[in-house]
Design goal:
The structure is a single chain. By secondary structure, the protein is mainly α. The chain has 18 helices and no strands. The protein is globular, with a radius of gyration of 20 Å. The two termini are 25 Å apart.
Length: 385
Amino acid sequence: MEWKDIKNIRGLRSVATIGSSNIIGTAITTVFWISIAGLLGTESYGELSYFLAIIGISSVIAMIGGGYTMQVYAAKGVKIESSLYFLGIITSTVAGIILFLIFENFGISISVVGIVAFNFILFETLGKKLYKKYFKIFVGQKILFVLIASAFYFVFGTVEGILIGYGVSLLLFSQIIYKSFKNNKVNFSIIRERKKFLFHNWIADLSGTARNHIDKLIIAPLLGFSVLGNYFVGIQILELMLIIPGIVFKYTLPEDSSGESTGKIKILTIVVSFFIMLLGIFVAPLVIPIILPAYATTVDLIPILSLAVIPRTISIMIFSSFLGREKTKFVLVGNVITFCVLAISIFPLSELFEVTGIAIAYVIGFSSSTVYLVAKYLQLRSKNN
């Protein structure tokens, strides 16, 4: 593929707008997380990552599958926003109260409420293809997060302070929800008509978040918070390597939902991810000891975790195709395969290789689901042709 062909790929400008926001926002928060990791040490940083896993799972439960439902149907012009916002406010508030009764940590509760509200705002913005507005909201939240969370940490000196700052930075954008209520009435019949898609999305989201956090929830009791702190840094670096596929997904999902062609940009994304994987294998282990000398174990994990970049990128591209066609069943099955393989392999491999074994299990789990997803995608394509 020549440069002139790459420049002419449909959607590159929109991807660039989404991408610049994600890259700038991620750069801002990466500096913050590196600083906090150094200040907290491996033990407290592991505790923070454990709480973030609980927040992640709880927020997905509270969103009841509304995220991609919002994005897909907003792209189709269905006025579903206010109804999903209203539902999300109720479920996240209930979740926040329950979590406070269990953990007595206000930071966890406010973060869950904030994530649900803010994610719905982002999904609506992307569904309507308002990419410049997305840039302002996404980057603005990251700046506020760093400022507020830093202030709360230095005032209170606790992990809870960081989480409270996180939640507050998300809730500051809630006026957008108020405007949505003014423009559109809550109409639950719109949701009822699409309850099957909503439910399938919810189950897919739940399986996906269980897949993404089971390793952290197992490491804490099995190997301790200090080991989890090292592992979490490795996962964060992996997520940095997956920024570009994530950016492209945010563009391709509404395009796939509208029936537009996205094949070329997805292929280009996989090619770029291959070179990013090589950086993770060969360059990242040289940089980590300089930036975070206390996280020595992470150096051994990164080359292994980097191998997950290609299978995860392929899965993300296929997820966009399936969700755009409202075929959430395949997304769900893919998530369940990852979860099951990871859950089954994590214990014997951790017994043999400790935290390195968990990294190996992570790669095996995601690679297994990618094989299934590719097979299903090719099967559907052959039927359509």
